[in-house]
Model the fold of this input.
Amino acid sequence: MALVPAAEAPTKHPLAKGVRQSAKRRLGLKLQNQKEPLTLEVLQTGILLYVPDFQACSLLALSVASMVANMWAGFLRYKDMKYVWVELVKFYPTHMEALLIERKNDQFREGDVVYISRGLDRRTCPVALNEALISRARLSGLVNLYQGWDGRVARFRPQNTQLNGRHIEYPQCRREVHKFLQRTTGMSEAEVQKKWCTQSLRSGGATVAAQKVDFRLFQKHGAWHTASSAHRYILDSTETRLSVTRAMGY
Done:
């Protein structure tokens, strides 16, 4: 940018390289504060607590359960989830398709289609939850599917809470995910925050699917550009680790 020849760029100077090498040795390459993936059992238990019935539950509870379920099943980051538009979600007898107009690793800005199949149990199915949310909230057109709401109204009159028409902000999303997990597990707020975060939804779905599907499809579903990035979201179980030596047949 300063019309400096590439060979003389400041970042190429041996001193800059030395600082980077020193920082890597000092800090290490291990991820800090890595949270645990959310298991399928905890997810489904929470959904049933929040939405025992699609019509009898509050719109707020239905919105939170739908958001959590689809972030888990679709490997969605928060920044992916905020770009899910009602008009770009299509429902079919076997699945749903959501066209994301923007995604983190979408270098060419071509968008990306997320495919989510219908579940065996309609009560916890991400697709059925989305259908119920759109119907209850009467959503249509180019509006956000997962919207925010007035927290003061939700605190005192949750049954009367209405969506505000704008995408849910990250602090509210994170807070609702933590509340969802507190109610499901009975753990304190501090314990939940220490163990899980919004990325736990993405890594939870990834951990379950990783051992059951072709890695190429797995990587495409999560929009990871490199295998090393995808592997960060997978937690290997004891059985998975033991499969290596069991395959040796000794």
In short: The chain has one domain: 40-217.
